[in-house]
Every structure is written in structure tokens, then in C-alpha cells.
Amino acid sequence: MSGVGPMFPNEKPENPYVLLSYAGHLLGNYSSRLCAGCGYGIIGHIFTRLFEDEKLDPKLYPLVLGIGCYSQMLLTVHYATQKVLALHGRAPALATGIKMANPQMKPIIFTGDGDCLGIGGNHFIHTCRRNLDCIILIFNNSIYAMTGGQSAPTTLFGANSTTTPYKMFENRSDGVKLALAAGASYVARTTVAHPRTFMKYFRKALKHKGTSVIELITPCVTYFGRKNLNSLGAEYLGEIGEKMDTAGKMIEWIKKNSVRINQADFMSEEELFNKYIIGEFKYEPDLPEYSEEYAKIQKIARGGK
Amino acid sequence: MEIEDNKRFLPEGKYLMMGNVAMSEGALAAGLTFFGGYPITPSTEVIEHLAARLPQIGGVCMQMEDELASINAVIGASLVGAKAMTATSGPGIALMTETISMAANLEIPFVFCDVQRNGPGTGYVTEPHHNDIGLMRFAGNGEFQVITLAPMSCQELYDLTLVAFNFAETYRCPVFIMSDAYLGHLHEVVKIPSKEKVEKRVIKREIPKDTFGKFSYKDESTGKYIIPKPPIMGTDYCPTMFLSQPHSLEGMPTPKPQIFTEMMIKKITSNIDKIALTDSYKLDDAEIVIIAYGLPVRASYRAVDLARKEGIKVGIFRLITIWPFPDEKVKETVKDARAVIVPELNYTGVIAEQVERVTKLNTPVIRIPNVCEIHHPNDILEVIKEVAK
Amino acid sequence: MSWFKIPKLLENKEKNFSLFLNKNRCGGCQACVYVCPTGILEMGDELNMRIAYTPQVKEGKTKYCTACKRCEYGCPDWCIYILDELDNEKVAKEATT
Which chains are within 8 Å of C by 3+ CB pairs? Predict the structure, then answer.
């Protein structure tokens, strides 16, 4: 299997969950192509555990992925899942077609911050507006990492990236506020440093009928962490002169910069300037859902009431 | 989804229908269950008619927020086993090209109706102009082959839609139906056969008994290309991942992109004798040949009748399949002719260029371009008389 | 096919669990070091096959591990993990032989 990745000696005993990933199942002890310390490794690990522990039926939960560094998850999540790699930004539209043609399925959509809030902003807004029964996971590492570190709509003020070599000065876009304004029915945000909270929110979203939007703040060590040490805007990021070159330091920085909703109500706007607000923002289980309303229309068209 | 088939087929008989409506009824008879579209003149009647008809039989008709979302939703529905189509015009195809190339790589079947209007840009929206033929041939980045059909009347719009869905299921490539602003809004009598006769002509989407190979591949022993039935997500007959990169027959990445590109093109061109549909009129002793497709054919029939009365030997070779271009058949027809006349509803003469390529400039090819106005038989008759002198 | 033993970083005989680390898969990102609530991990001195430093337990602190599994959930390469020896007897036996 040339060109797939480095193979390390088969060591025993192995973490029992590793052999469930597609790469572990077929190719033996194989290390993924992600950078050491990438947050997507953590998310793939947790997702595979959840898929196995909840005993989800792979025929009812297809995965739809966008384009980005998380496209590697095609090879690193559970081997029994059925996956589609859509085009950049079009994953919610493809999931709409899957759901309406087979209403028993519940698609799980993996998108990134540039994929969902940049090029795919229109499709994201309309999927939330329709309140389609699906789970949208937004992986926010505030940079376009796959193509080498360009700035994204969610990049923090003052950060350094290859297309903003002086200072990033644009207004930050907020995925949670966009989802709330469009009408999604379950909206939450958490970080990679709180894995058990993520598992709790995900289990709640599996039972919820309607669009669930969960945003995850992940570290990108190679392009966001390593480059933002001495930039002009370093004082806005909360670190001056300290090298954020390992995942451990970035996870600590994320934890320091996260504020819960209850605390954020009492803080002023200046204090909340470049921080992440985490928690559950909205949960309404009884809003009308799109495929159920369409089934009612089908009944009227056939002559019923 | 539960499909109630008792309202799907219209009762047998003759109906007065618009071109767009005839095409929608043809799609319903072929088994359509999902339509995703966006309103654009002159193809709005398609989505309006299907929005009323599809819920009656348990299907889904969705108006999406833009053309990009509508073609992506059609691809998603086709992945799950539903027959799906979309209808749009020139500006719509220009937006959808990226997704068409992704669907060509993953060999997902779908049907695409293009009701052409004047271009470039916004153009006059209610005038016909066959300007998307080149766009349909190269519809997206990458090299792949498409199938394009050109009907000339409302009855053909009904029949050729059935053929288009069968081609999509058998050859798993994008299939385009080429209509235009006048043909879509033309009211004509359409004869619809009985339900049993229509059902016999339709190829259904189902899981095959032999589940070896989910994507096309070349059988080394016979040298033929084998195209299995399309996989359905949500069942056992599904590859592990759908990744639009050069792949092997099980869906895993392959290290030889050249073999993959060759397969994309040859799986259609090796079957060209079953795909290239043509028709001929008074061609047996013709010295002058008219090659035409779409609306200009109707004027050519009248011109040929008038010319034959004066003793000029002229005949029509009608193209029903435009892409892939039927090289061998055209060469065969044109080898004894004195001249070839190609009336087209565009200025550059896209099909005239293809005929010149095939004849290698040994026979003179005369174009009759006409933009936004249909041909009058006298226009064609004058050219015939010029050539016959 | 030769196989290598995965080193046990610590073993707790009363509650019957052990902490394993797959040295050669580790990428040296230090996430487990910062996430541990009792702070018993630190980075070591030897390089592994991926040319990275791997973690080790601090001297004399092996009894402070509470098996909270935060290092296991925080590892991006799936290499450090707690195994309950009562549930995984077969696996535990392979490690000690």
C-alpha cells in the first residue's frame, strides 16, 4: 500500500479502540498523516469511541465530509462507517439530498471553519433555516491549514498568517451567532480540552430531532501556534514572546481563553474581545422539522388532510 | 420512501402539452423520485409542474437556494438510490460545472436538462440560441465523456427523456437533454402509451446479485470495460468511501491516474454503436447532405421536399446524439456527397467544425448560422440551389 | 513477525489498572503532560522512531495516578491509555510475558 503512510512495528498490547479505525483495521499499526499534536486526531479518537459505544448503525448514520485537514478522517475513523467526501463548502447541500431521499437516515456532517463559514456560508444558513434533521460539527482552528496557513474568516484579531503577514485586522465571524440567527434548534460550542463535555453534547444531539450545530475549538500547532509568537498583534492574543510550539501549550492557551456563558454575562465587551464563549446556547426540541413537514404535504397531495 | 405508483403514469391517450411539461412527464414515467432546482427562465415550468406532481406519488421536489445547492442535493439523492434530475439554463450550467466533474469521477448517474437561451451573460431570456454545446462537452475540470441528446419535438422530449435515464443507469455518466426556449414552450400533441408498455422500457435501480466491483474497470482477459450497477448508500452494496480521486474498482486510491483517465473516456466511446442515435430522410441517392439537429431540422424537411420537386437530389442526416460525436456514421454518409450543409442556431457552427474534422476538409461544408431566429425553409432552399448549380 | 513490548509507565496493584504508552507512535506533542490534573507526567530524554521525545512518569509519583483517562482522551495519536486489568486479562498477560 504505497503512498498511504509510515508503518511502525506492530506492538502489543494495542489500545483496543485503535483497531476499530479503518487504518488500524486493514493496514495494521499505522500512524496517520496528521501533524503531531493536531486536534483532529483527538476528535477522530473520540468519535470512533462514541460510534462503537453507542452501537450506531452505519447504514443510518452516513458521514459527509468537506475539504480540509479533517479529510484525513476518511481513513482514521471507525471502519464500518460509510463516508462521502463532498466539494469545498457543499457538504450541507449534499446532506440535504441524502436526507430527503431517505428520511430514515441522519447525516453527520464534518466541516471546518473556512469550509462552513467562508465558501459554504449560504448553504449553512439555509440548512439551519430549514431545521433539517442532521448534526453539523464545525472544527474551528481559525486558519486554513490544508493549503499552508492562510487567514480564515474566524482568525483572531492581530494574528499572523501567510496572507496577513503584517496583522489580521478583519472582524471575526462567529459560527454560533450565525446558526442562532438562521434558526437552528440546538447550538453549542466546546473545545478539545473538554472531551467529556463534547461526548455529552454529541449524545444529546443524536437524540434531538432538528439541526444540531456543535462548534469545536481545536489547536493547529504547525500554522497557527508556531507562527504567532512575535507578531505585531501578539498582545491581542494574550501571549507575548512565549513559543506555542507544542499541542500541550496550545491546549492550555485555549483553556485560558475560554469563558463560560454564565461568566460572560457579567463581563464587559473589552474583556471578551478575543475570547471563546463555550456552553450550550439554545435547545428547543419541539420546533417543526423539515422532512416531517414535507411528509404532511405529501399526505395533503394524495387527497388526505 | 413509499412510492405510490398509481398516479405516476398518465392514462393512455393523446394530450396537448408544452415541451417542458412533456419532459417532466417523461421523467416521471422513467422513475423520477427527487428533483432539486432553481427557477430560471425558460425552464421554470419544469419545477412548477413537478412541485405539484411529485408529492402525489411520494417523491420530493425541492427548490434550493441556488444552483450549486440544487445540483449537490441531486447528487446526494442519487447516492442513496433515488433517480434524480435537475433543469436549468445557460447561466446555471456555468455554475454547476465543478459538481458535474465530481459526479463524473464517482460515476453517479443523473440527468440534466438544459433549456438554452441567448448568451453570453444574461442575454435575451426568451430567445433560443444553441450556445451551450461546447459547455456540455467540457462540463468541468478534468477529462471525461458525457452523453448529449437533442430532441426536435414534444413527442421526442417525452421519449428521449426515458432513453436518457436508461443511458444514465447503464453508462454512469452525466447525461444532458438539449432543449431551447422555443421548444420548451411549444404546445404540441403528445401520444402517451399505456403503463405496461412504458414500464417495459425502463431500467430500474436495484442491487445486483453479483457484488464484485463497485466502480468501472477493464477486464484484462476480454479487453472490455465492465460497468457495474451504481452503489447505494445505506445498504451493504456500498464502498467504504466515496473519494473523487483516481480510484480502483473498490474505491481505494490507485497509483496510476493514466489508466483511470483512459477508463473514464473509453467506457463510453467503446460502446458508441449503442449510444449514437441517428435518423435519415431521403438519403439513398443524395448528392447534397444536410446534417442538422434540434429545431432547424423542421425547416430542413420542408426545404428538402421543395428541392426534390425541382429535381435536386438532397437528403437529411439527423443527429439525435450529439456527444459522443458519431465519427464513423458521419464519414460513411458524407463520403460520396458533393457538399454538406449545416444549419445551426448559433454563429460559430460547433457541429460544422466537428464535420470538418471528420471529413478532413475533402468535402465543402457550408454553414447557415442564425442567432435567436428560427430558419425559414427558403433560407435553406436558396443555399441548396446555390450548391446544385 | 517480531513484536515489541509496549512499556508500562505505571502499575497500580490495588485497583488493578495500568498505564501503557506506545512509544513508537508518539509524536511528542506534550498534550498529555499539560492535561493531567495531578501533574505526574514529564517529557523524557530519549528519541523514538519518529524522532520525538516521549513522556515518562516523574520520580516517585506513580501512586498519584487516579485513572481519570484525561491523557487517553487528549492524545492525538492514540498511544497512551489506561487498561483495567480485570476487564482485559488477556491483554494484560501479553504485556507481562
Answer: A
C41 in reach of chain A (CB within 8 A): no
B201-219 average pLDDT score:
90
Grid coordinates of B221:
482477459
Mind listing the domains of chain B with CATH numbers?
A: 1-275 (3.40.50.970), 277-388 (3.40.50.920)
Instruction: Provide the pLDDT confidence category of residue C88 given band limits of 50, 70 and 90.
Output: low
pLDDT in tens, B23-46: 999 999 999 999 999 999 899 999
C9-96 under CATH 2.40.37.10, yes or no: no
Average model confidence (pLDDT) for chain B?
92
Q: How far apart are the C-alpha atoms of A103 and A120, rounded to whole Å?
A: 23
Q: C97 — contact with chain A (CB < 8 Å)? A: no
Q: Which CATH number fits domain A36-301: 3.40.1000.10, 1.10.1760.20, 3.40.50.970, 3.40.50.300?
A: 3.40.50.970
Contact C88 A13 (CB under 8 A): yes
Mean pLDDT comparison of A32-46, B137-151, C42-56, highest-scoring range: B137-151
User: Which among B88, B102, B106, B104 is positioned nearest to A89, based on CA atoms?
Assistant: B102
Q: Are A120 and A179 a contacting pair, CB within 8 Å?
A: no
Looking at residue A117, the DSSP 8-state letter turns out to be I
Q: DSSP secondary structure string, C43-84?
A: EEEEE-TTS-EEEEEPTT-GGG-----HHHHH-TTS-EEEEE
What's the burial of C92, exposed, middle or buried (CB within 10 Å: 0-12/13-18/19+)? buried
Please give the angle made by the CA atoms of B310, B313 and B317, to the nearest 5 degrees.
125
Nearest to C35 among A14, A41, A251 (CB): A251
The answer to whether the CB of A151 falls within 8 A of the CB of A164 is yes
- The count of C-alpha atoms lying within 13 angstroms of the C-alpha of A117, restricted to the half-sphere facing its C-beta, is 26
Residues of B in contact with A122 (CB under 8 A): 65-66, 69
Given pLDDT bands bounded at 50, 70 and 90, which one contains residue A30? low
Nearest CA in chain C to A20: C78
Give domain limits for chain C. Answer: 9-96
pLDDT tens track for B264-302: 999 999 999 999 999 999 998 889 999 999 999 999 999
Pairing relation of β-strands A134-140 and A186-191?
unpaired
